[in-house]
Every structure is written in C-alpha cells, then in structure tokens.
Amino acid sequence: MQGVLYDFTGLIQSIDAVFRASMSDLWATVLEYAIIGIIYLVIYALIGLFLVYAERKVCAFIQVRLGPNRVGPKGFFQTIADFIKLLLKENIKIKNADGVLFNLAPFIVIVASFLTFGTVPFAKGLQGIDLNIGVFFIMAVSSMGVVGILLGGWSSNSKYSLIGAMRSGAQIVSYELSVGLSLVTMVILTGTMQLSQIIELQSDGWFIFKGHIPALISLIIMMIASTAEINRGPFDLAEAESELTAGYHTEYSGIKFAFFYLSEYMNMFVVSALVATVFFGGWMPLHIGSWQAFNHIMDFIPPIIWFILKSFALMYVIMLFKWTFPRLRIDQLLKLEWQYLLPISLFNVLLMAFVVYMKWYF
Amino acid sequence: MAEEFVHLAVAGTEGQDLEINMGPQHPSTHGVMRFVVKLKGEVVESVQPHCGYIHRGIEKMCESLSYPQIIHLTDRMDYLSAHINNEAVCLAVEKALNIEVSDRIKYIRTIIAELNRIASHLLWWSSMCMDMGAVTPYFYAFRDREKILDIFEETTGGRLLYSYNCPGGLMNDIHPNFQKRVKEFIPYFRKSFKEYDELVTGNVIFQNRTMGIGLLTREQAIAYGVTGPAGRGSGFACDVRKRAPYSAYDKVQFNEILYNEGDSFARYKVRMDEMLESLKIIEQLIDNIPEGSYVEKMKAVIKLPEGEYFQQVETARGELVVHIISDGNKTPYRVKFRSPCLSTLSVMDLISRNQKIADLIAIGGSLDLVIPDIDR
Roughly how many angstroms between the first and final C-alpha of chain B, as a whole number? Predict the structure, then answer.
C-alpha cells in the first residue's frame, strides 16, 4: 500500500487523544480548532511571502535580471521586509469613499482565499478539512472573492478602480464556467468530489494518464481559465497597470493592499494545488507501471515534498504565462471564453462521460 | 477653459459617459502628458490631449544663446534622438555659413545618428510592449540599448544627451575603440533581434491587439502632417533621409520602409524594419570612415548673416525642421522647431475613437510620443 510510509493520520489521532484525555471534549475541540487555525494562518502567510519571493526570482530569471539579493541570503527576506513596510504604512482614508464597504472588501477577498486554502490536502492526514464535496466547496468559496473585488472597486470612489472592478466581474464570472466544467469532467472520471478520495484513487496512476485525451483537454482549459480567474497575466485586466494604474486596488494602501496582494498569490497556490490534486495525484508519488525498484524509491520521498513540487511546477507555468505574454483586451478575453473554451469544455464533458461509459480509461 | 475644468470636476457623476484623466501621472503616458478621455463603458468616445506640463520655452531661450550653446537645448527636446536634433541645428548653421564639412564628419555623424535611432526604437519597443502588458521585452531591449549607450559614453561622454555635434563638426574625435565596438554590436544585435520577433512580433495576442487597430489612412497622415514611422506605416513616403539627403545618406544604400495598412501593427513593423535598415547603413559606413580632422575651422564667435535658414532631418520620430531667422548677431532673432511628435499627437483623437481603453494605450505606444518634444 502506497503512502503508508508517511501516514500522518495516526500522529494527528494520537495528538487528539492526548488532548481529549486531559480535558473535557468541548474544550479539546475548541483548543484544537484554535491551534489548527493559528497554524493555518502562519502557513498561509509564509507560503504567500515565499510565493512573492519566488515570483520575483522567476521573473528576474526570465528578464535577465538578478532579482532581490540584498536582504538576507539571496534576498530571501526581501518579502518579509516589504511586508513589514506595508504593515507600518498609513491607511489612507479616501474622500467620499464608502467607508464600511471599502474596509470590508479586502477581508472578503482574503477570507475567500483562506477558506479554499483550508481544504488543500498536503499529505495523507494533513488536511484542514476533508469535505465530501471538496471540489465543489473550493469552486463555491473561491467565487466569493469576486464580491470583494467588486466592492473594493465600487466603494473606493475612483474611476480607474470602478473600471477595473467591472472588468474583473465580467471576467471571473465568465471563466468560472470553464473552471467548473473542467472540474466536472474530472469528477465524472473520479466519481467522487472528496479530495482525499480523489488522491487515493490515483495510487495506481495519475488521472492525467488514466483519463488521457479528455483529461488533457480539461487540464489545458483548467490552466487557462484558472489563470484568468485569479486575475493573473495575460488576463490581468482588472489590474492592468498600464491602463488603469492598479485597477480595483488603486486606492488601497498599507495592510489592506497587502491583503489583496497576498490573496492573489495564495489563490495561485490554491489553484495549482487543486490542479495538482485532481490531475497529478496530489501527494501521490510518481509510479511507473511495473518498475518495482523505481516505485519503491519514489515512495521514500515524503508526500508533502511531492505535493509541494507538483504545485510549484504548476505555479511556475502560471508565472511563465504572466511574464511572456502581452495582455488581452476585454472583448478578446470574453470571446476566448464564450466562443472557444466554453463550447470545448461542454463537448469535453460529453466526451469524458462517453469514455467512462465505454470504460476506455485505464 | 474655466468652464471646461468645472465640467471635468463633475463629469462621471451623471449619465453614461465617464471622463477620466489619463495623466499627467499615469504609467503609460511616458511623461507628463494629460489625456482627458471620454468613455462609454470600455469604449473611447473622444480623447483630448492637454499639453504644456513640461514646456520650457526652448525656442525663446534660443534667442538669447549663441549657436554652439543652442545645441545643448536641442538635446533636451526629443531626448531619445538627441544627436539627430543637434545635427539639424548644426546643418542649418553650416548651410548659413556656406561651410562644407569633411566626409569624416559626415560619416561619423551618420553612424552615430543611426545608432541613436536604434537606441530610440529599442526604447520605443520596450515601452510599447509594456503598455500592452508584456514586461519582459522591456528588459530585453534595455539590455541591448545599454550596449549602444556604452559605445556613446566612450566616444561622446554622454549616455542620453550627447551634445556631440557642434557647428562645423564634432566636439571631439571618435574613441579608438569606436569602430571595433560598433562592429561587435552589429552581429550581436542581429541575433537578439530574432529574439524580439519570437517574443513579441509573432505572438498571437500581440497581433490581435494591434492589427486593424488605430487605422490612419495615407490622406489623413498627410493632412495632419504625421511623419516618421507613424506616417510611413500609413504608406506616406516621408523619409527625409531619402527625399532630401543630408550628411552621408546620399552615399549609402538603404530602403525606405513603407507599409500601407496604417494600423498599429504597421507602425510597429516600420520601426522594427527600420532598425535593421539602420544596421545596414552603419555597416556600409563603419569601415570607410576617411581620415581627417573632426572639426572644420570656425570663427571664435559664430555670426550668421542676415536671413532665414532652414534644415530638415529625420529623427527617430519623424521630420524635425529647424527654422532660424538671423539678424546678423551672434544670437538668432527667432528659432522655430517643427517637432514631429506634436503633429503625431494631433491624430490621437482621430484614430482612437470607438476603440477600447486598452487599444488607446496601444495606439499611444505605437505612435511613440516623446512628451518633451511636444511641449519643447
């Protein structure tokens, strides 16, 4: 049985047992929730900071530059310094801005991305919450973020922000369809929406190999559509710094801006984690048919490493998109979705259903 | 005017139209330029340019300066083709004094002007790509522009404003390394030019964003006096280097790049091809620089005889005309510069109506406006 080498379920259960032995059930539950919440907050912030650093280094690599190299070894602490700077910055009050909504918007955005982060399966047993509708939950919660973006743009009493918010509204709502449909395609193959089960099912081969043609189409659509959904280049029309200065978060400063910024990077992580989970076996090691020795060596690499490697490889691809392509125009963006991606994904759902019905998958 | 400003202050609060101020501080105006853009949703209804934010009164200042001093002001008009601006004044003064400069001076002037043109087009390329959301080309172009600037620094002492021309010749002789380094640069640039094409020109997104956008017909280009690459992108054969050759342009073979489409992509292609043509010109001249003095003998105080003098040159942005009226003193009575960017700016409203905001930015990029050249 694969994954047995590094099963965290037992560890978590024994910690839980210790808690429950020393105090009442209610207190144990409350305390566990608090501890897990804090751990997740810390991991969330750390991954976010690391991603900002990684993005800078990757983009510097593409652009024949060095990137940050002053604060800490190879500039590793640059983002932490930046974050401290953002924390200390003034929260500028915007004249005639809708105060409540203006302050609420960044929280909605970051809560949406934090909730999706909770379902990410890092390894066997290492998952915040394993819902039986995991895929559906991620889809539903992540689309909450657009409310924050719309509110932020609308309430900041700035024309640039308003245009950016309206753009992102049109964009995210459209591309949600393709993301949803490509996930539906995969759910047809897996037969479950629970993320842990989806991974277990891939122990003898990742779905990208099992599902072959329809899975591949669905992967490509998923990568394009989710890049658009998280507002990253070449689909970063909502921010479009050369057109709208900074789009919906033009008027935000300090920690509120940092929330938008962090949630953008964490959304990228969640999207890559989801793609890695659904298509590339999550924390499952790479196994090749009957190569027993090879498979055995792969098993020794901890699942958490596998997971991080896979999601970072996918994030690298998303970064490559951003730093290579020029930005699309809004009408071209919507045309791409409604004329190409959506019909193809609808067809792909049918194709996958047919493949599953005929049992043509491996 | 006052009414207009009041109107601006309340605009956008009623009705469908939204008026936004692009500039004077905006990431893609490339300087302090303000466009009042009237929008209907994403569609641009009209663009009103408001210039004057960086007006320094260069023409007026010239009236109190001697001719060798004027050179340093013309540097600061179109700062990206500083050398070519200087050449215009120098040629006008030399014409007035009936001085025929030696071939050596002509050759060096032409080589440096073409290198300057490449450097200017590189900066245009990088900023146009950045306007369209691609940041990487910016660094590619700056990497290569740096090589040209290094050559300039060695010979002229300046990296942006060279002041290398002076009436009657050049400020100083070329650096011993000059020829070697230029010859190293040519193959290097040809190689990295392929990279540019792979990265941007062939990109589907880029082509969709520029083809058929910002159409300027040949008639409109002529009517508005749009010269330079923007005019040649509309099929208007307006290259001064061909029509009225100055310096060493009559001694070299090169093509005038013409495209008839008149859209942003045509203007883009004109500049890209022009860079290669400039390389060709440099290649023909670099090995044949004649020996001799780098400056002709001039009087200590240059006084132009009474009369009007006129010289046109092709800068990286179009036709620059210098018109000097002299009353016989050591300072001119009046100097008029016809700057290419002001005419180019005037078609902004015409060609960006009914386009999207994003296209407005791309059109602005393809016109290659240098704001200090508009305001002077």
Answer: 22
